[in-house]
Amino acid sequence: MLYSPHILKKKFVNKVVNKYNEVISSSEEWKEMGRCRCDDNSTEHFTTENGSIYTPKYHIVCDKCQISEGDEVQVYFDDGSYRGGGKVYNAPKCNYLGYMSIYV
After folding, report:
1. Low-confidence ranges of the chain (pLDDT < 70)
2. Quick check: is 1 in a domain?
3. Burial of 80 (0-12, 13-18, 19+ CB in 10 A)
4. Domain of life of the organism in this record (predicted)?
């Protein structure tokens, strides 16, 4: 991407389970996924399967990476200050271009 003033991070949760599949311990960490552009979203609306309308707060454009629906992401400025984030609602990937759009 030519214009990418922000840094995209994804939350990874590591769980340790016993033989009964009970969680013994868990830890979480935020890993940097690359550069991105995060815009405030006020125009895009999605209709869910039950008919309710959802308006995402942010539209994030970044290079293709391993982010899918339900993941938690955060966006930071270059100076380390928090820009925005939340749970990924829709993460369509472009077929021919090397970027993807994420709605949070």
Report:
1. 1, 95
2. no
3. exposed
4. Bacteria
